[in-house]
Amino acid sequence: MKLYKTLSSATQAREDVTALKISIKGEQFPSELLDFPNLEELYLEGNCKEFPFEGITWERLKVLSIKWPSFTGDLSLLFRLPKLENLKIIDTPLKTFLLPLGHAAAPVKSLTIKDCGFKSLPEEIGMLGSLTEANFSGNNLSALPHGFLDLKLLKRLNLDHNQFKIFPDLIKKMPNLSHLSIDHNPFPEEEKERIQRIFHIWVN
């Protein structure tokens, strides 16, 4: 699989492009990026502030990585992409994200939303029924929604560097979860002792 690294070279071979990695220099999302019908992997960095809600033809996209420190918009539309399996959003400010009620959710297996500053996960997180790995480290989470229990295939969960003061007990009810990291949260000492006693987890 050839990885294209400039938009100009990619647009000259639009039908052949399956993997693209570019840095967006300006604040505006380049509209020509929307029309790559055979794109399977996309890696985006730069200074983009908004993401378009219409015109996307990424029907085959499986892997998407975004790192936009200046972002001010919404990325909820990404959860409608029909083939998306691996979504990674890093250092991209997000207040929250929504899942597509009334639409089929993307078949995401691996989800990373790291260092994005969001405070809560939507109750509809359970719509991502294919999820096996989630990394929500470096945010401002203090609780997990009840819908989290619907992630029955989840095996790995990273909640490091958040704002948990009480351990989310519902995690214990997740049958396939085999790896949990929840270090560097502001647990009081008595809560750390409870976590060790009841859940047999030692947290830093």
From TrEMBL:
Family annotation (Gene3D superfamilies): Ribonuclease Inhibitor
UniProt keyword Repeat, yes or no: yes
Record bears the keyword Repeat: yes
InterPro entries cross-referenced by the UniProt entry: Leu-rich_rpt, LRR_dom_sf, LRR_domain-containing
Record key words, sorted: Leucine-rich repeat, Repeat
A GO cellular component annotation in the UniProt record: cytoplasm
Cited PANTHER family: PTHR48051, RAS SUPPRESSOR PROTEIN 1
Record's protein name: Leucine-rich repeat domain-containing protein
Phylogenetic placement of the source organism: Bacteria, Pseudomonadati, Bdellovibrionota, Bacteriovoracia, Bacteriovoracales
